[in-house]
Write a structure and sequence with these properties.
Strand content: 15-25%
CATH superfamily of one domain: Histidine kinase-like ATPase, C-terminal domain
Strand order of the largest sheet: 2-1-5-4-3
Largest sheet: 5 strands, antiparallel
CATH class of one domain: Alpha Beta
CATH topology of one domain: Heat Shock Protein 90
Number of helices: 14
Bound molecules: adenosine-5'-diphosphate
Helix content: 40-55%
Order of helices and strands: HHHHHEEHEEEHEEHEEHHEHEEHEEHHEE
Length: 602
């Protein structure tokens, strides 16, 4: 199974969520706007307060000046003798001095009908001397005994100024008025170039001071007819019909500070952009934060989903594995029971095979016996003929009283019967039907037994034995007695062969586990097999030994027994001389250590 591909994050649902959360930006904008607006408002209020304080400070400096100056004798004498040039000149100079010292723009002295008698600018081209200012309201106020206050633009100087006027008294009588004009143009230039605009409007709502020259002398509200008439008569502005000034409320944030004593309004106008810009930044940052949060959320969701997918995948894989294990287990159980059945069948077949093998071996033996019968009768007839002739001969010898010779004949007869008994004993052993089935036999103890039987003879012949056998028992499939019979035969043959040789006489016995069983090697350094004996040694009654010694049945019996055991007897000569016989036996599972030997007499 292939793991499911990691799905793309659900950007659509995230976008939807972002859309739902986007309205959160509106309160953010609102809050930011409120914050920046309050910041701006408090900052502008300070500026405005400062401006108003500064303006009032400037005006207050000059407010009481006209009254004080009215008491000066030089000026009073001018009012008394307005035609005395010396007196007038003195007054002019005095006014100029004071004007220079106080920083006022102009100071001038009016007679009761509003004519200027002396002025600080008496030397200037546009001197006020000789001019009548009775039309100005400050004149009428002063003559009426009040402090005259007036904003206006100089009709000759063209400069804006604030006029303070006070009456000059001679006792209770008003003899003239003293006027001080304060320059306001200068105040305007002090404001500097900030984005915020300052606007000072008079009682008519007309802009008299402003940091924006194009707003100057424009009416911030509609003027009434009376106001129009008043403006025409007192001429405070360069124009008699001020143009309207319409300020866009959306573009400007306005704060106003009324100045009660002059009836003016000081306003500061801050462009809304000053708030909009930081608010936009805040909203952008908020939006970006929202976006980042969304992205992080998206990534987290994706990771979580991948994690869940993985867990699900692993659980599925585990389930599949469990299923496979269950399937396998049931397969194995089925196989196991089949194998058990097969093993049972095999065991039965094996038993049957052993039985059949026994039958076959027996049949083989009988057939060999059949073929051997001619040789047997020949072998037995020869000693029988000899016995008969010795017996007949003994009769004759006894007739002639030659008892000693007859005794010798009888002894020979006895020997011959012994030989015949030996032949018969061998044949009996050969023809015997084994009652025992094949079993696990340890090779080493069987070999030790066979060697023990021949030990006396071996020692007498001074045969040196070289054993090379593993310590661990080599278990072979055999019958205990039959194996010992084979081993004894082969070892006896080796000793027989060694009698034909002078010392040193050696016998090598070695065994090894091979792929298909156990190989036991018995080698001697005797004369070895002749070409003929190698070819015929397994034939019954083939022997190269003298008749008294050999029956020629040993190897024939060994070969038959070995085949019956499922093994093999290999005859060969060693390259270095001497015979080498190899017994190939089948391996068997470890059995009970040593079986009680089969009854050899059976
Ligand atoms: P027997 O020993 O009675 O002769 P066997 O069947 O045992 O009968 O042996 C047959 C013949 O094989 C022997 O006569 C001999 O010639 C030969 N033979 C057997 N074993 C050896 C041996 N180790 N070395 C040389 N020849 C042998």
């Amino acid at each position: 199974m292939t793991p499911s591909l990691p799905r793309r994050p659900r950007w659509r649902s995230l976008a939807l969520l972002a859309l739902c959360l986007a309205p959160l930006l509106w309160p953010l904008q609102h809050l930011a706007e409120r914050y920046y607006r309050s910041e701006l408002v408090s900052q502008n209020r300070q500026t405005l307060d400062l401006f108003v304080a500064n303006l009032l400070g400037t005006l207050h400096r000059y407010e009481t000046l006209p009254q004080i100056l009215g008491d000066l004798p030089a000026l009073r004498s001018t009012l008394q003798s307005p035609t005395d040039p010396q007196v007038v000149d003195h007054a002019n100079r005095l006014l100029k001095d004071i004007c220079d010292q106080t920083g006022a723009e102009v100071m001038y002295l009016l007679d009761p009908s509003g004519n200027t008698l002396a002025a600080s600018n008496w030397q200037a081209k546009d001197s006020f001397v000789g001019r009548n200012f009775a039309f100005r309201p400050y004149y009428s106020d002063a003559i009426a005994g009040r402090v005259g206050r007036f904003f206006g633009m100089g009709t000759t100087s063209g400069k804006r100024g604030y006029f303070f006027a006070a009456a000059v008294h001679e006792g209770a009588r008003v003899v003239g008025a003293l006027v001080v004009k304060v320059d306001l143009d200068h105040t305007e230039t002090l404001w500097g170039k900030t984005p915020e605009q300052l606007v000072l409007t008079d009682q008519h709502g007309v802009v008299i001071l402003t940091s924006r020259p194009e707003w100057r002398f424009r009416a911030t509200r509609p003027l009434t007819d009376e106001e129009h008439q008043a403006i025409a008569s007192i001429q405070p502005y360069p124009t008699q019909a001020p143009q309207p000034l319409s300020l866009d409320d959306q573009a400007w944030l306005m704060q106003t500070h009324p100045i009660a004593e002059t009836g003016w309004n000081a306003s500061i106008l801050a462009p809304r952009a000053l708030i909009d810009r930081p608010v936009r930044t805040v909203v952008a940052i908020g939006g970006a934060t929202l976006l980042v949060v969304m992205l992080l959320l998206g990534l987290m969701m994706q990771r979580r989903r991948n994690y869940l997918d993985r867990i699900a995948f692993e659980a599925k894989a585990r389930r599949e594995l469990e299923m496979r294990v269950i399937e396998r287990t049931s397969d194995l159980e089925a196989l196991n029971s089949r194998l058990k059945q097969e093993v049972l069948e095999r065991e039965q077949a094996q038993q049957e095979l052993v039985r059949v093998q026994d039958e076959v071996v027996q049949a083989g033996k009988l057939s060999v016996l059949g073929t051997m019968s001619a040789s047997i009768s020949h072998e037995l007839n020869q000693p029988l003929a000899a016995i008969r002739s010795y017996a007949e001969n003994a009769e004759v010898l006894l007739d002639h009283q030659r008892t000693e010779d007859a005794r010798g004949n009888l002894k020979l007869i006895g020997e011959l019967t012994g030989r015949m008994a030996s032949i018969i004993a061998h044949l009996r052993a050969f023809a015997r039907r084994d009652r025992h089935a094949l079993e696990s036999v340890a090779l080493q103890p069987a070999l030790d037994d066979a060697l023990a039987l021949l030990a006396k003879r071996r020692r007498a012949m001074a045969v040196e034995l070289f054993r090379d056998l593993p310590d661990a028992p080599l278990w072979v499939q055999a019958g205990e007695t039959r194996l010992r019979q084979v081993l004894s035969n082969l070892l006896a043959n080796a000793l027989d062969a060694l009698t034909e040789k002078a010392n040193p006489r050696c016998l090598w016995i070695s065994a090894e586990q091979t792929a298909d069983g156990v190989a036991l090697l018995i080698r001697d350094n005797g004369p070895g097999f002749t070409r003929e004996s190698l070819a015929r040694a397994r034939e019954p009654f083939f022997t190269t030994k003298t008749r008294t010694q050999g029956l020629g049945l040993g190897l024939a019996i060994c070969d038959t027994l070995m085949r019956a055991l499922g093994g093999e007897l290999v005859l060969a000569n060693h390259p270095q001389g001497g015979a080498q016989l190899t017994l190939r036996l089948r391996s068997a599972p470890p059995g009970v250590n040593l079986q009680p030997p089969e009854d050899p007499s059976a």
